[in-house]
Amino acid sequence: MYLWKSSNLANDLRNNNVTEKDKLKYMLFWVISTAIVSDPAIHIDYNYVFNDTILSIVMLIVSIAGTIYCYKVNKKGDNKDFISRYVCLSIPVVIRALTILAAIIITTVVIVLTFELNIMGSGEEAITTSITEIIVLSIFMLSVYYYLGRLIKVASTENA
User: Fold this and answer.
1) Domain assignment of residue 60, yes or no
2) Exposure pattern of 39-50 as b/e (b: 16+ CB <10 Å)?
3) Number of structural domains in the chain
4) 149/141 Cα distance (integer angstroms)
5) Measured distance CA(52)–CA(57) in Å, rounded
6) Residues of the domain holding 128
């Protein structure tokens, strides 16, 4: 795995000397580094509490496990083009999933407002991550990876 010599990697890619398993390593490196670097950024101006740490760890584990799951599904198929399938199919999967999540959030807000519940309190309380949010986001991410794996299976299998 090249982490510095990008020209060597480019040559190996051109000459088809990078295996699908090697590509998985690059993809996992990308998933892990992106999660680690971006996580603190989403908590700017909020108190980072224990549940936020739990959520970060769960999201990282689900991302790694989901990527490995998708790789294994692809490997059971024709074991080709893992990265392109993973990246390309992720776009419509995530758009669909976010649309569903947005609908759930909007519905929840409407229900809460209908019953005049005050979620935020007086506005002086810190916004924190609840166990319910951790569970919902975990299920959401697991569903995304499961659906992505199903689509990768279709793309990697003849007459699937």
Assistant:
1) yes
2) beeeeeeeebee
3) 1
4) 12
5) 9
6) 6-156
DSSP summary character for residue 120? S
Higher pLDDT, 124 or 14: 14
Cα 143 vs. chain centroid, distance in angstroms? Answer: 10
Q: Where are the beta strands (DSSP E) in 24-153?
A: none
Q: Is residue 70 part of a domain?
A: yes
Between CA 53 and CA 56, with CA 54 as vertex, the angle to 5 degrees is 65
Place of tokens 């959030």: 105
Residue 122 lies in a domain: yes
Position 114 pLDDT exceeds 70: no
**For residue range 53-82, what is the model confidence (pLDDT) as tens digits?**
788 888 889 988 999 999 999 999 999 888
**pTM beyond 0.90:** no
Task: Name the helix (H) or strand (E) containing 111.
Answer: helix 82-114
Whether 121 is covered by a domain: the verdict is yes
